Amino acid sequence: MVSRRYSSSYYTKELFTLLLLFLFSFQHTTTVQCQGRFSKQNYSRSSGDREDLRKIIISVVLGAVTGLVGSVLFALIVRCFVQYLNRIPILKGPVIFSPKVSPKTLQSALAKENHLLGSSLNGKCYKTVLDNGLTIAVKRLTPFESGSPEIRKRRVKREIQKELEVLASLRHRNLMSLRAYVREPDSFSLVYDYVAEGSLADAMNRAKESELPLGWEIRLRIAIGVVKGLQYLHSTCAPQILHYNLKPTNVMLDAEFEPRLSDYGLIKLLPNLSRATSPYTPPEYFHNCSRYSDKSDIFSFGMILGVLLTGKDPGDTFFGEAGNGGSMGCWLRQLQQAGDAKEALDKSIIVREGDEDDMLMAVRVAAACLSDVPADRPSSDELVHMLTQLHSF
Question: CB within 8 A of 133, min separation 6: which ones?
Answer without folding.
Answer: none
